[in-house]
């Protein structure tokens, strides 16, 4: 099954407005004509400016979160309506930094996933275990729980707009990368679990990205694994010099 490689940058809470616009325009030039799928996850406050830059390019504009509800009295929240108004096409949801720093539950993540999909957006759903889970031999169990809880109520048709990002929490921003073999083992498990939740066709088609200290030096080995279809990149996505080489892998 040939799946498109999907390389995404999660800028997290970084860059100034000027840096965001410059980085986006450098990426538009560097990735022009390339056939992989590309996405950048931009801080809310810069989405409008970056949207003007990536419009008409082959780079998908993503937000790093969205509200679980429609417009209304929800102070500080940003709705899917507002995001679509700015040209946003995708939302990163379930990131470990939101799960563990902000305390987002799988129930809330599921509401956001369904809201984004019902509103026609793509979702990049992040899952992954803590170091303690891995050391206790529970990595697969944690990923299975997150998948079934976060995708509850998502239809087979909607799964065409869902990407899974496996991000072992102990590998995020730490310089520690899962070995290609360890990452592949979980990716294979995740694909098998999607087959159980849906069917083999959905599992064969779903793109599963790896995230956690991915850079140009380790990306080729990771992306060579049969079930690793791309990457969700944090630190190395903040400069065109470090992100573009991964996109070209
Ligand atoms: P790093 O690439 O900085 O480890 O971050 C990975 C990540 O969390 C992407 O969402």
Automatic annotation (TrEMBL):
The keyword Isomerase appears for this protein: yes
Organism of derivation: Treponema succinifaciens (strain ATCC 33096 / DSM 2489 / 6091)
Family statement: Belongs to the triosephosphate isomerase family.
Catalytic reaction(s) noted: D-glyceraldehyde 3-phosphate = dihydroxyacetone phosphate
InterPro entries reported in the protein's UniProt record: Aldolase_TIM, TIM_sf, TrioseP_Isoase_bac/euk, Triosephosphate_isomerase, Triosephosphate_isomerase_AS
One cellular component term from this protein's GO annotations in UniProt: cytosol
Biological pathway: Carbohydrate degradation; glycolysis; D-glyceraldehyde 3-phosphate from glycerone phosphate: step 1/1; Carbohydrate biosynthesis; gluconeogenesis
Source organism superkingdom: Bacteria
Enzyme Commission designation: 5.3.1.1
Keywords tagged on the record: Cytoplasm, Gluconeogenesis, Glycolysis, Isomerase
Signal sequence segment: none
PROSITE patterns with a match to the protein in the record: TIM_1, TIM_2
Name under which the protein is recorded: Triosephosphate isomerase
A GO molecular-function descriptor: triose-phosphate isomerase activity
